[in-house]
């Protein structure tokens, strides 16, 4: 009986540990963050220019800091760019219409608590998995490469 009780407790603790680990992983999953070598305004401008150079339209630009200020609150510089190319995104929606919940894509440019300028965005591979799009879908790799290119252009000095 003691062995059975001990085994049951081991299973319970292992299960709790695994659940806590999964919860922690779920919190972090799917976000890519890059620190910029540029000022906030330059990072936003470089991201917009890189998107335009790849024929990716900016559909909306949300200045969260201005929104906070409008209601008497303060927020470090924080701007969300919402962007996409319907010719590409529609191919993903044909594979799984629910992916439209995560399209168009978004990138958040912000100043963190340490004064660093960062660009953070959703990993397209994570989004695809979330919506059941196969990992080898050619559009997923194309978008991943495009996101890598534009965010590097916005955050890293040209070599």
Q: In the CATH hierarchy, what is the architecture at level 2?
A: 2-Layer Sandwich
User: What's the mean pLDDT score?
Assistant: 87
Beta-strand percentage range: 15-25%
Q: How many separate helices?
A: 6
Rg for CA atoms: 20 Å
What can you tell me about this protein's structure?
This protein has a single domain, classed as 2-Layer Sandwich (TATA-Binding Protein). Helices cover 52% and strands 20% of the residues. The chain has helices spanning 2-28, 40-53, 64-70, 86-95, 124-130, 138-155, and strands spanning 31-35, 57-63, 78-84, 105-111, 117-122. A 5-stranded antiparallel beta sheet has the order 1-5-4-3-2. The termini are far apart. Mean pLDDT is 87; it is low at 4-26.
List the defining traits of the structure above.
159 residues, alpha+beta, TATA-Binding Protein, 6 helices, 52% helix
Topology:
Layout: H1 2-28, E1 31-35, H2 40-53, E2 57-63, H3 64-70, E3 78-84, H4 86-95, E4 105-111, E5 117-122, H5 124-130, H6 138-155
Antiparallel strand pairs: 1-5, 2-3, 3-4, 4-5
Helix pairs in contact: 2-6
């Amino acid at each position: 009986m003691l062995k059975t009780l001990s085994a049951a407790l081991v299973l319970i603790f292992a299960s709790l540990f695994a659940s806590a680990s999964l919860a922690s992983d779920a919190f972090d999953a799917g976000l890519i963050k890059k620190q910029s070598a540029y000022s906030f305004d330059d990072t936003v401008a470089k991201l917009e220019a890189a998107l335009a150079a790849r024929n990716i339209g900016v559909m909306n630009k949300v200045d969260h800091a201005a929104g906070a200020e409008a209601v008497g609150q303060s927020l470090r510089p924080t701007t969300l760019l919402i962007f996409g190319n319907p010719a590409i995104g529609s191919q993903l929606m044909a594979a799984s219409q629910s992916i439209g919940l995560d399209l168009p894509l978004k990138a958040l440019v912000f100043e963190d608590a340490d004064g660093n300028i960062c660009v953070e965005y959703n990993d397209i591979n994570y989004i695809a998995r979330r919506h059941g799009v196969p990992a080898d879908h050619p559009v997923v790799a194309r978008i991943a490469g495009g996101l890598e290119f534009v965010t590097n252009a916005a955050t890293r000095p040209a070599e």
